[in-house]
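BUG-309 | component: ligand-complex export | severity: low

The export step for pyridoxal-5'-phosphate jobs runs without errors, but we want the raw record kept on the ticket for reference. Input record follows.
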Amino acid sequence: MRSNRFPLAEINFNRVRENAQRIAQATGVALIAVIKADAYGLGARQVVSALADVVDGFYCFSLHEAVDAQTRETDKPTLALAIDETISAEDYRSHNVRPAIWDAPRAVQLRAAAPVLIVDTGMQRFACPRERIDDVVRAGDCDEAFTHATRVEHARWLREWCAGKNLRLHAAASSLLDVPEARLDAVRPGLALYRDAVRVTTRLLEARDTNGPTGYGGFVSATGRHGVIAGGFTAGLRPGPCRINGERRRIVECGMQTSFVEIGKSDKAGDEVVILGDDLTLEEVAKAWIVTPHEALWRLASSNRHAQP
Ligand SMILES: *Cc1c(COP(=O)(O)O)cnc(C)c1O
């Protein structure tokens, strides 16, 4: 059933695929697609199908996510953090998932699942300190290592600290894709795969002339008119930009299931309101919402999704 509940997120999986192809071509190294958190809200299973033949592997937070996303159906390996101590090497192997490990006892335990070392270059979370790299590599018989890099130095340190150990290395997520020095043997983007692949719209439920202070907080519409749209903070919305009949407008106040917007003279109930997409970028929305682009994308993509025909 095509959902007519709003806000509605249209997901363009072809765009996700094109983004991956462009990244692979521009970087010239292997591409590991980050599909954690249900592919940032876009739907991990469909993202995996769209990317299966254009990427070299997948990255998830946990084995459970990889199982839900059915990465096993592809012939590409998936990397997942070995946080859950109840998961065995056999569990990982049977799903073609390689556990990311950061201490020697766990490396020994999961050795049969070809564990991958995660090195701490600054994040200070789920990662191995520099001085224990050799111990863990030996314990797990590792042939691959990575770090969660936020600056080019992090990639440089990974390369220096792991030099001469015969390890395949990767560090760069979306923010370092343009930095050749950070590319190493593979790149590992999430956000960059999903850019411009989500269009979110809703509908004007009411449109009226403003008569004095309005809503919960008593805002006064700058246009002298205001409307109410379907979707409030329970759908992840926040005050910020939107677009109605070709004009930039503002979402001024969010209630639980509806929000107030400023509107123009001829805007009327039933009109489409664009919240993300067209010329409204994720960066612009995130800035107005005072959240990261990752958070803005997740909030918006995960609402009443459907694939763009
Ligand atoms: C989430 C994540 C990424 C992807 O980050 P983006 O900024 O979305 O590209 C890469 N590596 C690890 C380890 C991650 O957790």
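Assignee comment: Attached the raw record above. The mean pLDDT is 96.
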